[in-house]
Model the fold of this input.
Amino acid sequence: AVLATSSAKKVLAENLKQRAFKEQKIIDDANKIAEALRVLEIKLTAKVGTGDKLFGSVNNIDLAEALEKEGHSIDKKYINVIGGNVKRLGKYDAVIRLHRAVSVDLPFEVIAQA
Done:
């Protein structure tokens, strides 16, 4: 606890101002990354069994590896594949949470491995 003197109030105001500035910079950086991710076309290859059913599944780990190859290092825990693990060929969506205020929808396609 600190006494509410005029100097303590000034220090608190300055600290809050600096915190808000840093937070805004982080949000701006996240928005730049989001813009770069929106233009990507991700195609993941997977082994296919009968029909369009995959051997195994495609999940957030596979998507994180594909993004790493494109030059975007995003931790797998920030990637949410909508509908859970993908077990069939086709087009799907994932949500990438870059910041609590910034998330981006990332469409991707699962194709058969040649």
In short: The helical segments are 6-38, 60-69. The mean pLDDT is 93.
